[in-house]
């Protein structure tokens, strides 16, 4: 039996869920289901939608929202808080190292090929030190819970992790609809996230910046699936939301086109992938890019958050070494564990994976969003054989992990509270200081027994509470 | 402010204004076709002319209500259809999302795909209700902007766009119907003129306002005065020009500089102040209206230039 975060095996309620249990009893399941429709109507009217690439259908659909919150105690959060910040520091130290001397490779801890032959490694960044030595300014760490006191890291997101708007909006909707739950101040607030983000971004202003740094959020445009989040964050930070066509490069600076004429930009929180930001340096066919941007960046005229090339730190092949990074750079023991991972690039591990595919979760090293993975226990013999063929053809492209006994969180079913598997993504901010708002995004697989929580695959979201002492 | 944002706000208001104006034109069309002798006059043609879409309908063939509802209300390929206007206003809003209040956004987002699923037969059958729905959407949008939006440059761009579009709609309507107002075409006070004039006034929501200003009688001079020169009626050309001058002057203040658009609006105010209805008829109503249309077109172009629109 997986660990249920609300109920003990004997059916009694874990203490941290007392308030929620009382609320469920007071309101009744059918009452809650009615309120659920109300919540959905609010989401749609506000326009919090999410587009799924390549699936057709409604271009702006909603992520299902579940009313029952997911709760961490103050004690649990203290561990998570330290573990998350530790990991964010180590990942940034790793990035600084691999784009300079490569000590961790020289020390024989990580094989050079995994880094230097990795497509996520950008040679263009070698020797350049970004302001504050920060590469990944927003680190999203996907964590699963596998026991009462056991948290494991599923993957890191060092580029532009999305979803933080759901953390804020889910809380907003919950406080709007159920103010009585928040009246006693039991739940730590998360609404200072935008202010903390802005502080972090201003702390890494480039050398060319004079005075109060001008920060912008750069979006590919209103058709992007995360556009709502881009505009939401710009709005709450009180900064401009720019599209690539609003920016240009001149005299060593980046400028935005305003009704007053050009205005210099200091820090760009960009939500565009590395390869598209500058057609002169990266993909020449990119229509999204700002020609010359990368040159200005390297010469200290502008800060990009995250730094190009930060993706090498969240590569699935590099992930395996994060506990080693923590020991190597910080001289500390990892607080959060990694999940055991077999690398198909190693012949003996590949043999093991091929033999045990039916009980493992296999993934593409460069995949994301839950695409291109195989969940062994749920797959048919044919699916397993097809996947095995792909691994044999290209072993270096695959890793495998055990199917985890993921915890379940309380979720509203048609007739009762049911348990559904969930993960958790906190958003750690890195500027001159490291900041972490007490909360994050809980994604939940809404189908019974399902382990896939990605919103692109029908997962939902729920509010996440960190209780105060 | 980003030029793109300013442009989006300006056009968002124009599209919303256009959606409402088009809805009113449809109402006018319906009213006119129930007048005696309507089939001789091809009233629906005057509606598409006022909407600036006459080119779509071959000369010599009568234009039907079905054609017009299909083209002006539902057609996704007609950039001026109500459906297109609502869609484009929402796209503008999405791209300038950070400048809008939550209420403004919600007013544009709610029911934005409603017209996608309408069959022509249903739309015709429910036309009055649909027209009311459109008008309510636009008024909610305007109310949300009025009550909640910061009075910064963004608001001025929004209101300038609305005023420009509104002036053009009144001018186009006059351009289409000017012959009705020409005293020599028929006996003044004849039944047909009476209904035609009230239909024009209805299309601009001005019937009652007109009576408040001029009492119970309709004359071509007074109607022309009302629609062109009255500075209290919010759909008159003079009122819209005042509004544009006010908004553009505020923008000049925000930006601490003036452009060609500021000269043009001054010129336009000068023209309005130098006219009375007698003078308009001496110059020719048609010619005056044409001059107004040219001037407002130029103004739109110059606003885009002054503020570096795309």
UniProtKB/TrEMBL annotation, chain A:
<dbReference type="Pfam" id="PF14403">
    <property type="entry name" value="CP_ATPgrasp_2"/>
</dbReference>
<dbReference type="InterPro" id="IPR025841">
    <property type="entry name" value="CP_ATPgrasp_2"/>
</dbReference>
<dbReference type="InterPro" id="IPR051680">
    <property type="entry name" value="ATP-dep_Glu-Cys_Ligase-2"/>
</dbReference>
<feature type="domain" description="Circularly permuted ATP-grasp type 2">
    <location>
        <begin position="69"/>
        <end position="445"/>
    </location>
</feature>
<protein>
    <recommendedName>
        <fullName>Circularly permuted ATP-grasp type 2 domain-containing protein</fullName>
    </recommendedName>
</protein>
<dbReference type="InterPro" id="IPR016450">
    <property type="entry name" value="UCP005522"/>
</dbReference>
TrEMBL record, chain B:
<protein>
    <recommendedName>
        <fullName>DUF403 domain-containing protein</fullName>
    </recommendedName>
</protein>
<dbReference type="Pfam" id="PF04168">
    <property type="entry name" value="Alpha-E"/>
</dbReference>
<dbReference type="InterPro" id="IPR007296">
    <property type="entry name" value="DUF403"/>
</dbReference>
<feature type="domain" description="DUF403">
    <location>
        <begin position="1"/>
        <end position="307"/>
    </location>
</feature>
<dbReference type="InterPro" id="IPR051680">
    <property type="entry name" value="ATP-dep_Glu-Cys_Ligase-2"/>
</dbReference>
């Amino acid at each position: 039996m997986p660990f249920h975060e609300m109920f003990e095996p004997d059916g009694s309620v874990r203490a941290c869920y007392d308030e929620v249990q009382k609320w469920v009893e007071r309101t009744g399941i059918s009452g809650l289901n009615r309120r659920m429709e109300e919540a959905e109507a609010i989401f749609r009217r506000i326009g919090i939608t999410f587009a799924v690439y390549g699936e057709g259908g409604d271009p702006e659909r909603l992520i299902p929202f579940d009313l029952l919150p997911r709760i961490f105690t103050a004690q649990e959060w203290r561990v998570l808080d330290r573990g998350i910040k530790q990991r964010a520091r180590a990942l940034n130290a790793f990035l600084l190292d691999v784009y300079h001397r490569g000590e961790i490779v020289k020390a024989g801890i990580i094989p050079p090929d995994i880094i230097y032959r990795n497509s996520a490694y950008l040679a263009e960044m070698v020797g350049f030190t970004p302001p504050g030595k920060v590469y990944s300014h927003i680190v999203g760490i996907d964590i699963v819970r596998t026991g009462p006191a056991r948290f494991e890291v599923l993957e890191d997101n060092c580029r532009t992790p999305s979803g933080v708007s759901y953390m804020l909006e889910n809380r907003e909707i919950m406080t709007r609809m159920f103010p009585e739950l928040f009246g006693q101040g039991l739940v730590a607030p998360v609404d200072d996230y935008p202010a903390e983000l802005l502080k972090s971004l201003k702390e890494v202003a480039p050398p060319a910046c004079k005075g109060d740094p001008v920060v912008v959020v750069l979006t590919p445009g209103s058709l992007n699936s995360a556009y709502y989040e881009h505009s939401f964050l710009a709005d709450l930070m009180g900064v401009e939301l720019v599209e690539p066509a609003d920016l240009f490069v001149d005299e060593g600076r980046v400028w935005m086109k305003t009704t007053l004429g050009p205005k210099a930009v200091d820090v760009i929180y960009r939500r565009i992938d590395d390869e598209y930001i500058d057609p002169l340096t990266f993909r020449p066919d990119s229509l999204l890019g700002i020609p010359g941007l990368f040159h200005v960046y390297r010469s200290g005229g502008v800060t990009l958050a995250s730094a190009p090339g930060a993706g090498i730190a969240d590569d699935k092949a590099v992930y395996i070494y994060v506990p080693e990074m923590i020991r190597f750079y910080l001289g500390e023991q990892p607080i959060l564990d990694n999940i055991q991972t077999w690398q198909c690039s190693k012949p003996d591990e590949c043999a093991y994976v091929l033999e045990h595919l039916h009980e493992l979760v296999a993934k593409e090293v460069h995949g994301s969003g839950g695409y291109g993975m195989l969940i062994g226990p749920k797959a048919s013999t044919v699916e397993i054989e097809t996947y095995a063929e792909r691994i044999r053809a290209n072993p270096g492209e695959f890793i495998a992990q055990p199917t985890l006994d993921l915890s379940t969180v309380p979720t509203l079913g048609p007739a009762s509270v049911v348990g559904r598997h969930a993960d958790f993504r906190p958003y750690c901010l890195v500027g001159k200081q490291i900041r972490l708002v007490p909360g994050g995004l809980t994604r939940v697989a809404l189908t019974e027994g399902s382990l896939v929580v990605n919103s692109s695959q029908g997962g939902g979201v729920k509010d996440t509470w960190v209780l105060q002492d | 402010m980003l030029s793109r944002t300013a442009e989006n706000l300006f056009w968002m208001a124009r599209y919303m204004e256009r959606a409402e104006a088009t809805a009113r034109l449809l109402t006018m069309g319906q009213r006119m076709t129930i007048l005696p002798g309507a089939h001789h006059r091809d009233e629906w043609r005057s509606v598409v002319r006022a909407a600036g879409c006459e080119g779509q309908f071959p000369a010599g063939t009568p234009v039907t209500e079905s054609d017009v509802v299909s083209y002006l209300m539902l057609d996704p390929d007609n950039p001026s259809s109500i459906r297109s206007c609502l869609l484009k206003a929402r796209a503008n809003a999405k791209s300038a999302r950070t400048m809008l209040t939550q209420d403004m956004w919600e007013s544009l987002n709610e029911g934005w795909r409603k017209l996608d699923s309408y069959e022509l037969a249903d739309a015709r059958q429910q036309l009055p209700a649909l027209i009311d729905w459109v008008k309510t959407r636009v008024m909610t949008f305007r109310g949300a902007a009025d009550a909640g939006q910061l009075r910064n440059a963004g608001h001025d761009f929004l209101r300038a766009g609305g005023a420009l579009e509104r002036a053009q709609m009144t001018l186009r309507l006059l351009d289409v119907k000017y012959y009705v107002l020409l005293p020599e075409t028929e006996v003044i006070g004849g039944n047909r003129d009476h209904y035609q004039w009230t239909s024009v006034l209805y299309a601009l929501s001005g019937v009652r306002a007109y009576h408040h200003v001029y009492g119970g009688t309709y004359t071509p001079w007074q109607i022309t005065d009302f629609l062109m020169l009255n500075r209290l009626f919010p759909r008159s050309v003079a009122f819209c020009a005042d509004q544009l001058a006010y908004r553009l002057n505020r923008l000049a203040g925000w930006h601490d500089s003036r452009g060609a658009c500021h000269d043009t609006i001054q010129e336009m105010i000068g023209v309005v102040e130098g006219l009375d209805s007698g003078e308009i008829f001496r110059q020719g109503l048609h010619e005056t209206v044409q001059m107004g249309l040219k001037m407002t077109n130029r103004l739109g172009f110059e606003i885009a230039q002054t503020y570096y629109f795309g």
